[in-house]
Design goal:
This protein is an alpha/beta fold. The protein is built from 18 helices and 18 strands. It has helices at 7-14, 19-24, 26-35, 37-51, 63-79, 104-114, 134-144, 155-167, 192-199, 214-220, 247-257, 284-289, 315-322, 334-347, 357-363, 366-379, 420-428, 455-467, and strands spanning 85-87, 91-93, 122-123, 128-129, 148-152, 175-179, 185-187, 190-191, 202-206, 225-231, 261-266, 294-298, 309-313, 386-397, 400-414, 433-435, 437-439, 442-446. The strands form five sheets. It has a seven-stranded mixed beta sheet, sandwiched between helices. The radius of gyration is 28 Å and the shape is globular. Bound molecules: pyridoxal-5'-phosphate. Pyridoxal-5'-phosphate binds next to helix 8 and strand 11.
Length: 468
């Protein structure tokens, strides 16, 4: 039903500001660069449209109210975009926050290769088609000691490719033997029993939840056995009355029986973590040395590189993976390959490991972190909050070393008589957004996961949160 508009209302409506005037308002103009003029105009249009629905005797929104409503709408639109975040959670590999930050060399590689043409699949010697994977395979051989290597989208895809290649039923069922204590769910929908079922393989569970013996695997071997599968229990630990099969024993059994062994290592670390005060984590090189035939791991967990699924192992088996048509659907893009190659190259020179942000963050001493926290606290002395420097515990995250805390330091910000959740929300509205951890009546910003170059940005964000 059309609204009938009286002369009084029409007069008021004429006083509504024009779209182009609102577009010039500094608070609104700031969004044009972020979202584009078209999106901003649409938001202005819908707020004006709502304002026009007034009737007689109702006051028009003031210009300030209109601007406020437009800014609110644009803020919601903008917060759905992908943008930079400062991670003050103390969780180094936070899957929700994009896991590993990349090394400068990796970023340069991505920009150079992504911004132009490359010899991605071109052999410059012969001038003919070349292999997309040859370069990274060579780096994987050098860094892990394996015979060969291949890269796909992520570790989940790596496991899928292995199962599809070796355990997809053709004429008969193909069985994959897994110990009961390793039937993992890592979150994000990756559940080993479900992934196995999807691939068509038949899951054969052996052992008990707490105790598994090599004899359990031996008894399960049969004419349909396709693979012996180990998986890293990345996010839990079974303690107490336990027994497990040594990976090298499993590999030896596989060799005797002529059945390939596979290990889903998950995080996939290439260096000893003990110097960082962390418990020893089984490395990819160890899995290779143990004789595991195929090893799958992520690129963006403890490797500190781009999202990728890396498979290393025996040459003849990797060749079969390479021949699987499914590989085409799991193909990794040129920028990812460039970033991965650049990251792997840093491992070839141990003195450059600190150029991988993850290892730089792990290496900060508590003394260094405390000094930064004190500087930040000094610069924030004027805000209306109780600031203190507290001991904190950082975690690797990303499904790696779930129980191992790393000594850290946090800046604690306790707003007076106000809800710390409101402060946390205000910090999330900063750009870059600052993500803290609410603890009691304070917001904690753990300095281990905040690169020092971001300290001035943190100061600005906290000050702005209190200025609102
Ligand atoms: C993280 C993880 C995966 C999945 O890795 P993505 O690279 O995220 O696909 C698989 N298996 C284990 C044991 C993991 O920890």
């Amino acid at each position: 039903m059309p609204l009938t508009t009286s002369g009084e209302t029409t007069g008021k409506l004429r006083r509504l500001p024009a779209v182009h005037r609102l577009l010039d308002e500094p608070q609104i103009a700031g969004f044009v660069q972020l979202l584009g003029a078209a999106v901003v105009k649409t938001a202005i249009g819908s707020v004006l449209q709502a304002a026009r629905k007034i009737g007689d005797g109702v006051e028009l929104p003031s210009p300030a109210e209109l601007i406020g409503a437009i800014v609110e709408r644009l803020t919601v639109v903008e917060s759905a975009e992908l943008f930079e975040v400062i991670n003050g959670t103390g969780v180094l590999l936070h899957t929700n926050l994009g896991r590993a930050p990349l090394a400068d060399d990796a970023l340069t590689g991505m920009a150079t290769i992504g911004g132009g043409y490359s010899n991605l699949e071109f052999d410059l010697e012969t001038g003919t088609r070349g292999s997309r994977y040859a370069r990274v395979s060579s780096l994987l051989r050098q860094t892990t000691g394996a015979e060969d290597g291949l890269v796909v989208n992520n570790c989940a895809a790596a496991v899928l490719l292995i199962l599809d290649t070796f355990a997809r039923p053709v004429a008969t069922a193909r069985e994959v033997v897994v110990a009961r204590n390793q039937l993992i769910e890592i979150g994000g929908g990756f559940r080993l029993p479900d992934v196995l079922r999807r691939s068509g393989a038949t899951l054969v569970e052996v052992g008990a939840t707490n105790r598994v013996y090599l004899a359990d695997f031996e008894r399960a071997l049969g004419p349909n056995t396709a693979l012996l599968l180990r998986s890293h229990t990345s996010n839990y630990r079974i303690d107490g009355f336990v027994a497990d099969v040594e990976p090298a024993e499993l590999a030896a059994l596989g060799r005797r029986a002529g059945i390939p062994t596979v290990e889903d290592l998950g995080s996939g670390v290439l260096v000893d973590l003990a110097p960082y005060g962390l418990p020893h984590e089984r490395t990819v090189q160890q899995a290779v040395a143990d004789g595991i035939d195929l090893i799958a791991f992520s690129g963006d967990k403890l490797l500190g590189g781009p999202q990728a699924g890396i498979i290393v192992g025996r040459g003849v088996l990797v060749a079969r993976l390479r021949a699987n048509p499914l590989l085409r659907a799991l193909r990794v893009d040129k920028t990812g390959l460039a970033a991965l190659a650049a990251t792997l190259r840093l491992y070839l020179e141990p003195s450059r490991l600190g150029q991988i942000p993850l290892y730089a963050m792990l290496a900060y001493s508590v003394v260094q972190l405390r000094a930064r926290a004190e500087r930040l606290s000094g610069e924030l002395a004027s805000v209306n909050a109780a600031l203190s420097i507290v001991d904190s515990e950082a975690f690797v995250g990303g499904g790696a070393l779930p129980l191992a805390g790393i000594a850290s330091v946090a800046l604690s910000i306790r707003p007076p008589a106000s809800d710390p959740n409101r402060l946390a929300a205000a910090l999330r509205r900063a750009r870059p957004a600052v993500i803290g951890r609410v603890d009691g009546d304070a917001v904690l910003l753990d300095l281990r996961t905040i690169p020092p170059r971001h300290d001035p940005t943190v100061v600005r964000a906290v000050r702005a949160a209190f200025d609102r």
